[in-house]
Amino acid sequence: MHEYRINRGYRALINASLLNGIGNALYNIVFVIYASTLPFKTLAVSLASFATLIPTLLMLVTGFWADRAAQKTGRMIIARVLQFGLFLLLALLIQQPGSLLIFLILLAINVVSDILGQYANSLELPIFRHLIADTELNSAMGFQSATQTTIALIFQGVGAWAIVLLQHNFALFGVINAVTFLAAALVIAQHRQLLRSAEPKPSTARAQTFHASWQVLRETVRTSPFIGLSLILAFLANGLATSIDGLQNVTLLRQPHYWLGNYGNTIALLSIVFSLGLIAGALFSQDFCQHLSMLTLISLVLLGAALLGVSFLLNWGIWAALVLNFAMAYLLGKINPRFSSIMLLTVDADHLGAAMGAMVTVVMLGAPLGQAVFLGIANAAGPALSWAIFALGSGLVSIVALIFSRRVSDPSLTMQPDTL
Length: 420
Fold this sequence. Notes:
- This protein has helices at 2-6, 8-36, 41-51, 53-57, 59-68, 72-93, 100-131, 137-165, 170-190, 192-197, 210-223, 225-241, 244-254, 263-283, 294-313, 318-346, 352-364, 366-381, 383-405.
- By secondary structure, the protein is mainly alpha-helical.
- It has one domain (2-201, 209-419): MFS general substrate transporter like domains (Growth Hormone, Chain: A), CATH 1.20.1250.20.
- The radius of gyration is 21 Å and the shape is globular.
- One of its GO terms (cellular component) is plasma membrane.
- This is Major facilitator superfamily permease.
- Pfam families: MFS_1.
């Protein structure tokens, strides 16, 4: 909060990110509700869940091009303006009758917009790194994470409530999202001189090929075996965990007795509870988790995922799912800022976009396989079999993570709190 008050450049990036987050939080929940109203609702909800992975898988590409960009501030503005145009087009198309073709076009628009968003985020990284001192990096990232999840928490609930109040006017929400992208572009444009002054100077060390981008990550892993092991376990975990939203959405479609009011309210409440867990985990740093290694925390997250699968198999009810979602998110709220801070302090500013993009690409490579397997089984044979396999896999990876947590030292436990 202190850095937000005194650092104009950091404040501008945070404000633009918040405006973008408002539109995304509103639209993401509304789009799932839109998919649930289509004649092919199970397929539509599954495709909508799977499509969210595509931009993340392309982070290596967007990070590579962001590192090569000479005028990062200008490119950020262009990316937001393009997103604005795409969602105006979406607002027009979503008014058409709900055919499979129209749905796929809308899905493609959303994916392209998210890719542009990832590109803009990669452009911000080196500017962010130059604006914040090392000693303030962890608190600044924690504040950024807390504000983003708070926005998601508030506006996911607002979206689920407002779409019913506005009689499912999906086009209006497309326009609102477009306006938030434009507003984010205007905030960056207003502070463009300040942000340009924080851009890193062109360096001959900048990665010029995709191979060089992978080399940056490989060198990072070589100097920190802990990061390498974390990437492997995160790869396995993501093959499982990224299926949770999709599996929950498909399961709730088929089991109305889980609903709290209606389908939209229920999935919104699950998202809100998850966001609350992320915020609480980030804010309450002095708790029982502060002396646990990151690998132990990963193991506990996967244990929660296994129990979530069991809860749906044994019909423990929606309240059990809400509690387990909160618990998993609480632990993730501690893992994400800690790991991101280590990466920001380990990698030089010229290669941040490529290194972070390569890291996320490796982590997320397991996600499409997991989504295809678990959502495929849920569509073909029903959610019960999918949850059973999911629970077994989560439990096994949890045990593996726990074993390695006893054998590999965690550098974040030996670093001073103000430099994490």
